[in-house]
Amino acid sequence: MSIADKSTAKPRKLGLKERYAHLTRGLGWETTYQPMSKVFPFTDYEGIKIHDWDKWQDPFRLTMDSYWKFQAEKERKLYAVIDSFAQNNGHLNITDARYVNAIKLFLTGVSPLEYSAHRGYAHVGRHFVGAGPRIACQMQAIDELRHAQTQIHTISHYNKFFDGLHDARHMHDHVWYLSVPKSFFEDACSAGPFEFLTAISFSFEYVLTSLLFVPFMSGAAYNGDMATVTFGFSAQSDEARHMTLGLEIIKFMLEQDEGNVPIVQRWIDKWFWRGYRLLTIVAMMMDYMLPKRVMSWAEAWEIYFEQGGGALFEDLSRYGIRMPKYHEVASKEKGRLSHEVWATFYNYTQATAFHTWIPEKDELDWLSAKYPETFDQLYRPRFEYWKEQSDQGKRFYNNVLPQLCVTCQIPMIFTEPDDPKTICFRSTLYKGERYHFCSDGCKDIFLYEPEKYIQSWLPVHQIYQGNCGGATVPEVLNWYHMSLGNDNMDYQGSPDETLWNEWTADRHKSAI
Amino acid sequence: MSPLVSITFQTTDEARPIIDAIAEDNPEATVNVYPSMTKIDCPGRLVIKRSSIEHRIGRAFDLQELQLNLITLAGNVDEDDDQFVLEWHTAARSA
User: Fold this and answer.
1) What is the CATH number of the domain that holds B36?
2) What total number of domains does chain A contain?
3) Is A215 helix (H, G, I), strand (E, B) or coil?
4) Rounded to a whole number, what is the distance in Å from the CA of B27 to chain A's nearest CA?
5) What mean pLDDT comes out for the span A237-246?
6) Structural domains counted in chain B
């Protein structure tokens, strides 16, 4: 080639596929100073066999330069909204202050999981042998840290005005109902790297999180919470990439070795059920905690699991993968889940960092319309009875600590799959001790790894053993960093309600 | 009917031409509007073409910009410089 040719030839811009190939191929190498098994000690013990790591690729083909560019753009958009929300007293525009209780549950129950996910992905990003999945996991680790930070920043505005938002990290690590999300993630993070990805990237992100982030965030928008919907959708824009990682890693394991199929199927069964139980609080947030509702839990389950998940598992059937075990139980429970859970929190309102209430009449009517098979027959009379009792000054509080399921750590409140009037109890004997479960799904999970689950830190047991500040409610609340009468109890009569009524009264006055 | 692939965008000024392009390029697609978001379902396979979006916005468009307004999706993804494809392989096999 002559000098003249060189100067006129335009440098060819690399295409997306080439750029991605340069990033992810040839960067890893076979180590010689130390054996590979010592450099990557966690890749074999789960029994997953990988023959060619280069067969894995990110279908978005995201390279580092694009990653930084697009993430920076997302942050700029998000912080413009957060600033605007704070500058314009955005909290005054929500439909009703009861709504903020969903945000309290989100900050204490979900945001710490984002941080756990950050740690989990940083760990597996180090321990996979292939450069493709390592880079995808490292990007996800940074995304998850971004989610935790942006959620804390956004919700800090509400903390200036509302109770229950002051110590989310401490509460996540101590409070009884928050042991449900905490133990879920600790179960995943203490598993091997392939199980972790099946648990979080596939079962949780791909199969289940659309139920959390999509209809609930749409609900936040509908209730005037501009800040939450913006962080929610900003996080979810990363989530679409995470979901794709989840599906790709599953296909990769299944394509690499036939022997991987039964291992992956067992993880899918386990983590579908663990994730579904975790989403119980989301069912309640959607049906009870949004003053203006977008869709019911049952409708969301039909769209995102029965329809979306059905198509997914049909696609995976070519590898010999079937629908997760007990998916039919989840569908049987869709008409009762949110009602059983809200009733439980109403019973234990003295020990929650958010307020509860009996739905207003028009809200009960909405529930009757959305749940024609179950609500009027099974749940409405109970809520109306409690309202009547409360109006007579006999508000019902449950002062007996509930038995917990050893696996999911949720109180044993769920009913038999085929009988919504009978509580579902399962138990087993292991090394002379009896362990209790809320469902066949949770019992199966225990039976496969009993040595893991007998170590569960069960809040009720811990309270009775004297490890949670004392034996009385005020002592335990103090240990939780909850302020009695401010953070807990009914919304009616709470400082949140008083403040909200003052603001809205001012609004009516100035309108005249 | 083939199982549905699905993609959801924020309903924003940036996403509107993308949604329009998808609706035109995929005649079998259904566009569902929810508060603040738009969910597009399509049997079996859905394609997003860079050229269709560029035609609407009058500037060069990098398909990775989709991620800025993307909320969720269902289906296997395959992306290159010119198109973003979402499909279920079951549908491709039976077609």
Assistant:
1) 3.90.56.10
2) 1
3) helix
4) 20
5) 89
6) 1
